What does this fold into?
Amino acid sequence: MVRRTGWICLFAEILLLMGAVALRCLPQCLQKGSLPLALGLLLGGALAMATRTRYALLIYLSLGVAFLAGTLFAMPLPTDAVEEVRLWAGAPSLFQTYPEIVRTLAFVFAIPYPFARFGYHAPDRAQ
It folds into this structure.
């Protein structure tokens, strides 16, 4: 199941980049999507760490890292990449904001794999 989750998330990220190639905004999407991808991986890893440890300090520390990753993602980035997208005649205006769509979905698709791979998904151990 973990391997399937990883493949699905990777396939979704590739589909996002294929859309960027079709809209001719790949450099802008890579620029806007790389940091959120790393933050999503950090968030998934921090949440996995919270499930793996039994020490309260490490649980709170990992939850703090997860909160920091989510907060950094929520901060607005410069929107200069919107002017760089070159659309075809009659294209929907939604595609003008494709780098922002990539930014959001790169973050969302990066969270599940580290959590599924490194998290502890079983009942608590008896003490």
